[in-house]
Amino acid sequence: MTINKKQSIEPFKIVGIATRTSNVTGKAAEDLGNLWGRFFEEQVGTKIIGKVSEDIYAIYTDYESDYTGEYTCLIGYQVHNLEKIADGLVAREFAGGKHTKFTAKGKMPDAVVQTWMEIWEKDADLDRQYSADFEVYDTKSQQGENSEVDIFIALK
Predict the structure, then answer these.
(1) R_g (Cα) of the chain, nearest Å
(2) Whether pTM exceeds 0.90
(3) Which residue of 10, 87, 88, 124 has the fewest C-beta atoms within 10 A of its own C-beta?
(4) Which positions ≥6 away from 150 have C-beta within 8 Å?
């Protein structure tokens, strides 16, 4: 895991599919695995109009409390606007703001899971906002053992 300095993220819009879950008793592993499965099986990307890029975003938001409570995960693409949304998809706008970027390196999804565990261990020191944290899956995320995924944690 690589930790980069704090950076400012501009507001952005996402369209995709979502689920509500929590990290207790392995619920998130099952729910998020199912959500990723749906994302690819239903070819969600082909239903989204006005994509900014082919980068896939996994956003964690609507936190009940902190990483121990329930939250919503939305998997989708950043879009230019929210004017035309296909049936069955969810559209959200995020405010952006201060974030710290972590980079998960290695075989996916194991490297992302390991990085999240390290983030949770540092939770008290990060001054997290628990508004919208997200992962960006670009071309670097599909390189086998040499994959990389950037994870952005919202800060107060």
Answers:
(1) 15
(2) yes
(3) 87
(4) 101, 102, 103, 104, 135, 136
